Amino acid sequence: MDRSDYSNPIIRKINAIVTSDGPPDKVDALLKEEDITVNAFKMNSIPKVTAFMCERENLLQLIQYSVKFPEEPENREKSHKFPYFATDVLASNNMLL
Questions:
Q1: Whose CA is closest to 46, among 85, 87, 96?
Q2: CA-to-CA distance for 77 and 30, rounded, in angstroms?
């Protein structure tokens, strides 16, 4: 990335999530930033997001959100928001999947 990318607070936030010192549940953290994450993944505009989402364990978590009945139906994020955006990422036209 060039220096202009590092000055963008959105890209800095996404990069902070996907780096090794980011939050422990990184897929959830990215799905909370749904509009940024989904668009960045679809357009392959932030390579770290694409590489991160294409890792096996992260793909498995996205698939689980997409097909598994939520264990906590009262948790709105895990029962509605995350499955919706996980499916959106999986159904994207990103050729790396």
A1: 96
A2: 12
- 28-65 confidence digits (pLDDT tens): 888 888 777 777 776 777 777 788 888 899 899 999 99
Tokens describing residue 14: 């996404």
Sign of the CA dihedral 83, 54, 6, 17? Answer: positive
Confidence of residue 70 (pLDDT cuts 50, 70, 90): confident
For the chain, give every domain's residue range: 3-90
What are the helix (H) ranges across the chain?
A: 3-7, 9-18, 26-32, 34-43, 47-53, 56-67, 76, 82-90
Please tell me the distance from the alpha carbon of residue 64 to that of residue 58, in angstroms, as a whole number. 10
Helical packing angle, 56-67 and 82-90, nearest 10°: 120
58 and 12 Cβ atoms separated by less than 8 Å: no
CB 40 within 8 A of CB 46: yes
